[in-house]
Write a structure and sequence with these properties.
Layout: H1 3-8, H2 14-22, H3 36-54, H4 56-69, H5 73-87, H6 97-110, H7 117-129, H8 131-134, H9 138-151, H10 161-167, H11 169-195
Helix pairs in contact: 2-3, 3-11, 4-5, 4-11, 5-9, 5-11
Amino acid sequence: MNFLAHIYLSNDEDLVTIGNFMADGIKGKQYLNYQEDIQRGILLHRWIDSYTDSHAIVKQSTKRLHHKYGHYSGVIVDILYDHFLAKHWLNYHKTPLETYIQDFYQLLQDKHELLTPRIQKMMIPMMKQNWLLSYASLDGIETVLYNMNIRIKNRVPMDEATEDLKEHYEAFGKEFETFFKELRAFAKVKLEELTI
């Protein structure tokens, strides 16, 4: 899953959210250098990624893209799934998406000293360009994929995946909805286990 889903699945717990959000840059046992609730967020992130990568529905979504984008199809599906989460946000959370995102950006500012240097650097363009809110629109997804394409030095035309999304919009949407229901239940159990 991508940024918005990881933030959402942290159950509105501030330090778990911080850990979950910055977990990609924390390898191996480095998570032990952080306070307990941040550790929980990092471990939750890892469980979410493992569950997502091995799930049959996600594999179905990535298979649709694999011939064109190879192993980057998983990254693309993560972004497309965040689109459906953002678009149908009020089905999952009572707080409007724009307010929820602004609260998250405020959390990043308030806990700046706890963030990894990579996240401290990344949060500036993220907030300025409002990446998370942009997921809700097709234009926003196109911009995200275009920027990803630059990061991977045009190895595959990721920016073209918006056309694949449009072509298979209903299928991707149904796959997300079914998968996310299962992922929410899984993440809830894992977070409870990590609390014990």
